[in-house]
Specification:
158 residues; alpha/beta; five-stranded mixed sheet; 4 helices; 24% strand; globular; disordered C terminus
């Protein structure tokens, strides 16, 4: 049996859940397998938000921003999605990083359900919900990236 696989390149991506009051951030291990919440930034001004995110980008040597895009349930881009795109574009330019978008519908709901399962109150842990939502967004991106690269795997049996 021969197993061929393209060499996996290490990736450092930053998952970003943009809200009007907070920005949830998540990172991944270098192998690109697991996303975990890093922190939540309380929004103040664009300049201050960028400074805080820049520090994390530098520490983690981030190569790409993965931003959750809140599509409407019918799949269209509504007001909030366009607002997030505008912010993400400015952020990507300020950080000199590429940006990729992931559909983030229901990630905040999923994050709330995770807290409820842990017997924690969602209303008391808003920042944690934002971090978990960012991790869900990033995990979705990592999984889709991995499934695309796995298509290049070839198995041959003798």
């Amino acid at each position: 049996m021969i197993f061929q696989q393209q060499s996996k390149s290490l990736i450092s991506a930053l998952g970003v859940d943009v809200g009007s009051k907070r920005i949830g951030l998540a990172g991944c291990d270098g192998t690109g397998l697991i996303a975990t919440g890093i922190t939540t930034i309380e929004r103040r001004s664009f300049k201050e938000d960028v400074e805080q995110i820049q520090q994390i980008v530098n520490e983690r040597q981030v190569q790409v921003l993965v931003v959750g895009l809140p599509y409407s349930m019918d799949g269209s881009l509504g007001f909030q999605a366009r607002h997030v795109q505008k912010f993400a574009t400015r952020l990507a330019q300020a950080l000199k990083l590429p940006v990729e978008y992931m559909d983030e519908r229901l990630t905040s709901y999923q994050a709330e359900q995770m807290l409820i399962a842990e017997n924690r109150s969602p209303s008391r842990h808003k920042a944690l919900i934002d971090r978990k939502a960012a991790a869900l967004i990033l995990q979705q991106w990592l999984d889709s990236r991995r499934s695309t690269s796995n298509r290049s795997v070839a198995f041959t049996e003798d």
